[in-house]
Design brief:
With 235 residues, this protein is α+β, with helices and mostly antiparallel strands. The protein folds into two domains: 3-62 and 156-217, no CATH class; 65-153, no CATH class. It is 30% helix and 17% strand. Strands 1, 2, 4 and 10 form a four-stranded antiparallel β-sheet that branches. Strand 7 (125-129) and strand 8 form a beta hairpin.
Length: 235
């Protein structure tokens, strides 16, 4: 489904907001006076769909990818590096020089090393910090080496009404449940003829049944787990 299909389904089948009989809502821009016939303009619905897509990604981690975009090249003596903001979780890191994988650890696992912030060598471990969007190597790199990252990520595209033919990067069976979250956001709009807490809660409940809230919040707990066999690590 492309963006136009998603907006159309949301407007016509969920929100029932088409501006009256024979209204060409698809041609309305945010500044058109005709858009006043609608409770939500097209740009508002696109913004809500973008957030709904991101929420699905955070909850079910649908895309795991090995992409050179996320490679990290170390510098001598530099321990911490920024992660691409699209990265939700790191599943693995491999040295392109040795083909060896690094072990994910929590800061507590190496805290007692008195050389934690000074000792250089070949990194054997990495410590992700998703809250700050960074990653630290242990030991501190002593050479310039590129590392490949296997990651779960957010969608690459932020959709806009100016390009409605762009496909939504989500499996077809997730499309309508994703739009329930967009509907919940839409009914939070702070206007007297729009805001509807009951309808918002209804669609949020439907979304949560399809994508349980625990799947989002458990990620934070997993990232702080120090069990190396399943750890998500974190500072």
């Amino acid at each position: 489904m492309d963006l136009l299909g998603a907006v159309t389904f949301l407007r016509e089948n969920i929100l029932d907001d088409v501006g009256g009989i024979s209204s060409e809502w698809g041609d309305f821009s945010e500044d058109d006076t005709e858009s006043f016939q609608l409770r939500w303009n097209n740009e508002e619905l696109v913004a809500n769909i973008n957030e709904a897509i991101n929420q699905v990604y955070r909850r079910i981690l649908p895309v795991k990818e090995l992409n050179p975009l996320y490679d990290i090249t170390t510098s001598v003596g530099v321990q911490t590096y920024n992660l691409d903001p699209k990265i939700l979780q790191i599943q693995g890191i491999r040295s392109q020089a040795t083909n060896k994988t690094l072990v994910r650890v929590a800061l507590e696992d190496v805290w007692d090393d008195t050389n934690l912030n000074t000792g250089q060598g070949v990194p054997a471990c990495y410590i992700p910090n998703y809250d700050t969007g960074s990653i630290s190597f242990y030991k501190i790199p002593e050479a310039v080496v590129s590392y490949s990252l296997l990651v779960y990520r957010l969608p690459l595209i932020t959709h806009s009404w100016g390009d409605t033919s762009t496909p939504i990067e989500l499996r077809e069976e997730f499309m309508v449940p994703m739009l329930w979250y967009a509907a919940a956001l839409s009914y939070e709009k702070d206007e007297a003829n729009v805001v509807d807490p009951t309808r918002s809660a209804y669609f949020l409940q439907k979304f949560n049944q399809e994508f349980p809230m625990t799947s989002a919040y458990s990620d934070t707990r997993k990232r702080r787990t120090s069990n190396r066999s399943i750890s998500y690590g974190g500072i």
